[in-house]
Amino acid sequence: MKKIMRGLMVLVLLVGCMSGCGSSKEDAAEIIDEAIKELKKVESYNTNLKIILDMNMKSGGSTINGLFDADLSLDHLVKEEVAHVKGTMQIETMGVSESDKMEIYAFKEDGKYVQYSKSGEADSWSFEESKQMLAFNSVELLEAMKTADKLETDGSGEVDGKKTNVVEATVDGETIQKALDMMEDDEETASMMSMFSGSDFSEIDFVVKMQFYKDSGLPASLEMDFTSFSEEIMKSMNDSELYGDMDFEMSFEEFKITLTHSNYDKVKAIDVPEKFDVSSDDYSGNYEDGVDNPKGDWNRFEFTYQGKNYKLPLSYSDLEAMGFTVSEDTLKNTTVAAKGSEYWVEATNDKKQTIILSFYNESDSKKKLAECKISSIQIDDDISADIDLELPGGIRLGKTEAELNKAYPEFSNKYTSDVHRSYSYYGDLDKDERLNIEINEEGKISLIIYERQ
């Protein structure tokens, strides 16, 4: 949840940083000036935040649709510097939909801005320090909008039944690039923005639509439609040196963020809990360190399938011998970029059992899928049920945690949460030797990832 919220804050910050030196229409600037003057008087307000991201990713012959939908409500006591966020997030992909509640308290504690957040029915909270107060309605944002490369009025509108003045701010590609450069000062944000490395933003424009209540002059809404913007970014990334060899296409049906402001000076109090039960990590679980290079048969990187022995890394002929096939279109049209690149593919047998494979290219040139090594194999309860695949020591899907610990008594680390446990085993890191096993609520092995390059 924190990563999603962090991503949202990056987008809002990006818009806030988009200040250029272009001219602006006087009447549009006057509307924003009036809003700034009135907003400085405000003691509290509510913001409704809606996010919709509907996208498709095509790789080889497969297309996967992903949908992210969030509906959040933020109450903010401005002078007290206290905010409370509550709402729901929904993620849908490959026909599976998951919905989760989320909640955040943000305030000043011992002179520092802090945030406590949790999702779902978790009893414990995640803690994070922040450089600024969590707020989606600020004077700073409006001041940044005033200096956009192009600023103009766009008639009248309506928000929550109230008449509004509409202002559009347009930012050009040069300003976007400057904003990204400015954000590199924040280590965590810079890490997230590194995906844009090598991209050309010179032909990209971005439009922010703002509405202001006519009766009070205060901000009514801010709408950021990232759909075309994101399409242009993906095109730029695909043309860049860093991403040019990647065999995938991404398209956006809709990517929109809307902030609607209301209840000015009507939020009277926010009941902040006296004490937060903080989890030991962001995932409301506990890690237990094991040993380096744990001993045991797990590091033979061998397995049996239907009574026959195989060893990682596999060749494509090994996969065929096992009776698994990759779609003809994927096999024909997919290439794996050079210098240690990986490509994840599903393969299916005649029993409709599916395994997930990583094709690894260690050469200095691109290769067809079938020419690469298969460095990793993944099986799980959902797609590989009843598969006759067994690791050394008799470990397979459905075995108990006790049987796992007996076969592999040493591990690199163990993660325990309220709903599942996972074990990790690491060998020679230069060869990316690892085994990951998850235990479900019933105490049985539900997922296995076995890898060696």
Task: Give a structural overview.
There is one protein chain. The protein is an alpha+beta fold. The chain has 2 domains: 261 residues, outer membrane lipoprotein receptor (LolB), chain A (Clam); 166 residues, no CATH class. The strands form 4 sheets. It has an 11-stranded antiparallel β-sheet with strand order 6-5-4-3-2-1-11-10-9-8-7. Strand 2 and strand 3 form a beta hairpin. Helix 2 runs antiparallel to helix 3. The longest helix has 16 residues. The chain starts with a helix and ends with a strand. The N terminus is likely disordered.
In short:
The protein is of the alpha+beta class and 453 residues long. It has helices at 2-17, 26-39, 139-146, 173-182, 187-193, 227-239, 316-321, 328-333, 401-407; strands spanning 44-59, 62-77, 82-93, 96-109, 112-119, 126-130, 150-159, 162-171, 206-213, 219-225, 249-262, 286-289, 302-305, 308-311, 335-336, 341-348, 354-361, 367-368, 373-380, 389-390, 413-416, 421-426, 434-439, 445-451. The strands form four sheets. Strands 6-5-4-3-2-1-11-10-9-8-7 form an eleven-stranded antiparallel sheet. An eight-stranded antiparallel sheet has the order 12-21-22-23-24-19-17-16, with no helix packed on it.
